[in-house]
């Protein structure tokens, strides 16, 4: 039987992250905090911190929209004004999310951890500049959207839709919690699409982990059911926003992109709600 020590050896770091011995030394509070976490918890501990941050941010942002629905706070921003989730809808969705996060998303992250180390990605200082960090996040947004578009169209082929993707379309009027509501097989495919741009650009681990948090937040926003112009993503070119994806859930056969509209417009699958 394979020893547990051998299994966990894949997650151990061969590096010494003692702050006093780092070269170069941290030059700002963010670098110091990054180094302190690595010194205190190691590389795998840092991964778990970001995983928990992603899950907590997902839950908190979805809860905000839950209260929007529960108390009908902003009806003018609601895209499908006559459709609000019931308690039964929310319970079904959360049960699915808990199972997906524990048995699919967490294992995928654990598998990607040693794999990303093979790619040569770095934990080292200095951390990327603000512009490098933002540019790499933007490349991940573009790359994931490209892979997501083609996977999503594949999800809508007859067999795959009937047996896999139909689960995600259980809610024709999505709400925040439904962002990751899906069949486990679909969650794996979407995880591959999220990881694919990382394989290409191989960013710093700070960017890598932040990207996964951004991806989850973006998914909650586009499934929220509320078209709010002040969302930071709305200022990006070709960003479809909540209305773009909400209309996909309503009509099914259009708007396959994850967030951007350019591929749908280029390939004739773009539709918008008539005003």
UniProtKB/TrEMBL annotation:
GO CC list: membrane
Domain Fatty acid hydroxylase: 138-269
Matches recorded under InterPro entries: Fatty_acid_hydroxylase (IPR006694), Sterol_Desaturase_Related (IPR050307)
Location of this chain's protein in the cell: Membrane
Biological processes annotated in GO: lipid biosynthetic process
PANTHER family, sorted: STEROL DESATURASE
Protein name: Fatty acid hydroxylase domain-containing protein
Source species: Dictyostelium firmibasis
């Amino acid at each position: 039987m394979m020893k547990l020590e051998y299994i966990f050896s894949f997650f151990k770091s061969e590096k010494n992250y003692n702050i006093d011995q780092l070269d170069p030394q941290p030059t700002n509070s963010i670098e110091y905090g990054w180094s302190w976490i690595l010194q205190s918890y190691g590389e795998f501990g840092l991964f778990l911190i970001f995983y928990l941050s992603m899950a907590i941010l997902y839950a908190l942002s979805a809860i905000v929209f839950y209260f929007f629905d529960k108390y009908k706070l902003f009806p003018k921003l609601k895209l499908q004004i006559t459709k609000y989730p019931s308690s039964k809808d929310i319970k079904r969705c959360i049960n699915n999310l808990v199972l997906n996060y524990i048995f699919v998303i967490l294992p995928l992250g654990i598998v990607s951890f040693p794999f990303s180390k093979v790619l040569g990605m770095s934990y080292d200082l200095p951390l990327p500049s603000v512009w490098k960090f933002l540019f790499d996040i933007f490349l991940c947004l573009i790359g994931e959207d490209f892979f997501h578009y083609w996977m999503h169209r594949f999800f809508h082929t007859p067999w795959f839709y009937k047996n896999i993707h139909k689960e995600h379309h259980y809610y024709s009027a999505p709400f925040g919690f439904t962002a990751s509501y899906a069949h486990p097989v679909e969650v794996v495919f979407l995880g591959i699409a999220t990881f694919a741009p990382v394989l290409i650009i191989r960013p710093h681990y700070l960017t890598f982990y932040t990207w996964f948090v951004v991806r989850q937040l973006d998914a909650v926003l586009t499934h929220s059911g509320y078209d709010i112009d002040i969302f930071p993503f709305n200022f990006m070119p070709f960003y479809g926003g909540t209305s773009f994806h909400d209309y996909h859930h309503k009509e099914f056969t259009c708007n396959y992109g994850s967030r951007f509209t350019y591929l749908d417009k280029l390939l004739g699958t773009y539709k918008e709600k008539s005003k």
